[in-house]
Design a protein that fits this description.
14 helices, mainly alpha
């Protein structure tokens, strides 16, 4: 019997970028919980602040955002707006545990789509390790106890967010075959901001519907998770999506750590054990998928 081959590939700089993005995104749920504003207002300011900063950074670094780049950002921007709006809204209707565990299922959608879209194949053992990692992440999130009541609206919003997040992931991977990362992320963010603006007003809200103390959280949401989008979009050229999606599935572990540090929540031994198993499984997946030094996906700039 021929030995199994796994074709998921990654370069070391790409893996580092995805890892940092995972940590940055892990704090999203905690920051949203700390922000005294509605979900739509949070999305509005988070996107417009990040969009302005990214466009300015692109200009300062000599990058010209051409029409081709703006056009490439439209579809991913729509997906990103849908993801953020649904995710932040889900956190207002259901527990962080429910929302994050549903979003952690995103790798299953990405892996299914990666082969027909990008020709990526996942071996049996890598698939088994992915299942172990997702199960362990579930233990981290739910190890603190099941939610006291079932919130169907929040669960449905979280499921929609997960699908939109997968769409953003795949659309960005496709676009990054033709455009550079920083300008593309700026275009995506501005596109998402443009989409959410009429939605905010149609919902009967305005950008001013926020308390004074919310501004620091708006900026943190724009800068911290926002930097993760730049890193991830850069890494798409160097890491297969079937691998990067599994790595980012670890962000609920970061969310739990953030909840302990910032929300003063307690962690149980089962959660610690689940986190250790998840990180070990993801570590094995990364180790199996690493590229030889002589054969990167493409030269690192």
């Amino acid at each position: 019997m021929a030995a199994e081959t796994t074709t998921s590939r990654a370069s070391a700089p790409g893996l580092v970028a995805v890892g940092i993005a995972t940590v940055a995104w892990g704090f999203s749920a905690v920051l949203v919980e700390l922000t005294p504003a509605s979900a739509l207002v949070i999305v509005f300011w988070r996107l417009w602040i990040a969009g302005v900063l990214l466009v300015a950074l692109s200009a300062l670094t000599g990058r010209r955002i051409t029409w081709a780049v703006w056009k490439a950002g439209i579809v991913p921007g729509i997906f990103l707006c849908a993801d953020m709006t649904l995710f932040f809204s889900a956190l207002r209707h259901a527990s962080v545990a429910e929302v994050t565990i549903i979003n952690a299922l995103q790798p299953a959608v990405v892996i299914l789509a990666a082969r027909p879209l990008f020709g990526e194949r996942v071996g049996r053992s890598t698939g088994a390790l992915t299942i172990v990692a997702l199960a362990a992440v579930s233990l981290v999130v739910l190890g603190g106890g099941l939610p006291s009541s079932h919130h169907l609206t929040g669960d449905l919003l979280a499921a929609g967010s997960m699908l939109a997040w997968a769409g953003y992931w795949l659309a960005s991977k496709h676009a990054r075959e033709h455009v550079e990362a920083l300008g593309f992320t700026a275009a995506v963010t501005v596109a998402a901001a443009v989409v959410v603006t009429p939605i905010l007003f149609i919902a009967g809200q305005t950008p001013a519907h926020a308390k004074a103390g919310a501004w620091i959280w708006f900026v943190l949401l724009a800068v911290v998770p926002g930097s993760g989008h730049v890193l991830l979009n850069w890494a798409h050229r160097f890491v297969d999506v079937s691998l990067s999606s599994v790595i980012v599935a670890a962000n609920p572990i970061v969310a739990v750590i953030g909840a302990v540090a910032l929300l003063h929540q307690h962690v149980r031994a089962t959660q610690v054990a689940g986190g250790a198993v998840a990180l070990a499984a993801i570590g094995l997946i990364v180790w199996r998928s690493r590229l030889p030094a002589s054969s990167p996906l493409e030269p690192t700039p």
